Amino acid sequence: MARKYKVTNSPIHGRGVFAAQPLKKGEKVIDYTGRLRTHAQSDRLYGDSLDSGHTFLFTLNERYVIDANVGGNDARWINHSCAPNCEALLEEDESGDKRRDKVEIWTRRAIRPGTELTYDYGITLEVPHTARLKKLWACLCGASDCTGTLLRPKKRTART
Questions:
Q1: Shortest CA distance to 154 belongs to which of 127, 133, 132, 135?
Q2: What domains sit in the chain, N to C, each tagged with a CATH number?
């Protein structure tokens, strides 16, 4: 069976993943894999990821992170877009074992060969989104409604 995708240089950022054949809406493309680490282990290894713009870490659940720097597959090269054609979905382990949860990348719509595969990274930071952080986490997706940053907008709270 032919591969669904290929990895090559991306106009968005560095490397990217591109459809190698037509993909249907609702089709699984790939699992996001890598070394399973606790949040604390990840923080010790990579320091404050706020200042790194590090995107090979994928939050799996409240306990674990997938570190695609170690044992990661081609999913780590899928770039962010403000108008994504794929989505990252969490598949929770039926037995409740958080170590066995996984992340799968699925298409949101039909995709033609040669199209770059993207999803919304949905990066949420609890600190204020300063100009420096927005620049560090800049988005280069080129979508007509690009927000200019990979950071999710903060939710506004009602004033009383």
A1: 127
A2: 5-122 (2.170.270.10)
